[in-house]
């Protein structure tokens, strides 16, 4: 019999095993401008599949949950933030003449640096928190590190959201870019819920938000799994709708 974590992992495995294929299709179709965004969507799906598979395997064999599966599940949110930033950046391409710095490479690089730092902190924090031999002091230190990682992700989200909102002030010439930014807006809303869940999990000492004990299936579905599914679905739908964007960018043949 699977517990809450196992049941959640089954849902994740089922969805992301399917989602990775249209995500890979978008990676191929979007070309160099969308490379980093779609690579990280594929990476996120892969992490979710591997992490869920490890947890399901442990539970079906009546083994204690391995630290690797739990840590993979915990830190996957950071690549998801990078993917949203990358796809948002792809939708800014025709706006660079308006605000070259705001819509150029510098914010894109900062998003990646912030997320990479958050990944490192989350891995360290969850390693200290999830290890079976962790002392009370180790767990406290781990939670403090997780909080810092969560705050960094929230700051990065604010940066992406501000640039996205500013970008909406300018008309996009290309149909594909308009489709992408719609997906990004939906994704940002879902991503905020997911980041706040991670951050609250390290701040609130309750059964529902505790990173180790989790909560009920319904709570985790609404606050953890559903936002990720909505986000990935919105981005993939926008990616498929804008699959010809690289051809739209080509200058007309005279």
TrEMBL record:
Transmembrane parts of this sequence: 6-28, 35-56, 68-89, 101-125, 145-168, 180-201, 221-241
A family per Pfam: DUF7702
Transmembrane helix among keywords: yes
InterPro entries: DUF7702 (IPR056119)
Domain DUF7702: 3-243
This protein's record includes keyword Transmembrane: yes
Record's keyword terms, sorted: Membrane, Transmembrane, Transmembrane helix
Protein name: DUF7702 domain-containing protein
Taxonomic placement: Eukaryota, Fungi, Dikarya, Ascomycota, Pezizomycotina
